[in-house]
Design a protein that fits this description.
The structure is a single chain. The chain has 267 residues and is an alpha/beta fold. The chain contains ten helices and eight strands. It has two domains: 189 residues, 2-enoyl-CoA Hydratase, Chain A, domain 1, CATH 3.90.226.10; 48 residues, Orthogonal Bundle (Lyase 2-enoyl-coa Hydratase, Chain  A, domain 2). Helix 8 packs antiparallel against helix 9. InterPro entries: ClpP/crotonase-like_dom_sf, Ech1-like, Enoyl-CoA_hydra/iso, Enoyl-CoA_hydra_C.
């Protein structure tokens, strides 16, 4: 089965530009505005990749639309046709809805492989939530980022306020983000795919372990993370990938690695 087989859906096009690398392009005209159907489809893509055990080692997320990444959400309005409930029941329903929304947009964070966002044009509202849950973010020249939720009367609640303080508080990273690059949409996607190719050439055990440990470090103290790292590597160091890497380096050839898990057979 080809890596990208059967993954494209109504508003997301998925291709395999190189071995073990997927490219997911958001394409809901005219402005990639997210409806419930769209964000449900988005989260399901990542969860499906994990559930089916496809040998994905890196994924690039971008927009297929030439002028922007996404204009945010287009269905915030309440459904007046819905059967009325009292305030408590309405609050519980909203709470469940928000958790489902957060779970879908946070799907890249749960993947064992890195997800690289390559953005251009406008990145509005939910777009910030989306790229915040990715592992790496590349932006083309002139990309504009805006957290718009406060302008429509609410606090951002799908990930931005949780992720941003953790992923932007790094001086060297900020220096890197301010380094001028003559990138348009084509160039930023090419750069992201180049990084994805490099990641895909490494041991899946090492890459997935690095992602898990970094995510744990983001949310825990140094001492807690050191303990977690020791527990993780107590098992991971037994991988055959280390032997394969050393053997390939000695022979001056590219190493090959087994998938993280066997794919789930089709019923």
């Amino acid at each position: 089965m080809a890596l990208a087989e059967g993954l494209s859906s109504k508003w997301i096009s998925v291709s395999e530009p190189s071995p073990h690398v997927l490219h997911a392009e958001l394409s809901r005209k005219p402005v990639n505005a997210f409806s419930v159907e769209f964000w449900t489809e988005y989260g399901a893509l990542f969860d499906r990749l994990v559930a089916e055990g496809r040998d994905v080692r890196a994924l690039v997320l971008s927009s297929a639309l030439p002028k922007l990444f996404t204009a945010g959400i287009d269905d915030l309005a309440k459904d007046d046709a819905a059967e009325p409930m009292d305030a408590a029941r309405t609050s519980l329903a909203t709470y469940r809805h928000l958790l489902e929304f957060q779970h879908a947009i946070g799907a890249p964070d749960r993947c064992p492989f890195p997800v690289i966002a390559a953005v251009h044009g406008l990145v509005v509202g939910l777009g910030i939530d989306i790229i915040s849950a990715c592992d790496v973010r590349y932006g083309a020249d002139g990309t504009q980022f805006t957290i718009k939720e406060v302008d429509v009367g609410l606090a951002a609640d799908i990930g931005t306020l949780s992720y941003l303080p953790k992923i932007t508080g790094n001086h060297s990273l900020m220096q890197n983000l301010h380094t001028p690059r003559a990138w348009g949409r084509t160039e930023v996607i090419a750069a992201a795919l180049k990084l994805a190719d490099l990641i895909a050439s490494k041991s899946p055990i090492a890459v997935s372990g690095t992602k898990r440990i970094l995510t744990h470090a983001r949310d825990h103290s140094v001492s807690e993370n050191l303990e977690y790292t020791a527990v993780w590597n107590a098992a991971a160091l037994h991988t055959e990938d280390i032997t394969s890497s050393m053997r390939a380096a000695k022979a001056r050839v590219a190493p090959t690695f087994d998938p993280l898990r066997k794919p789930t057979p089709k019923l």
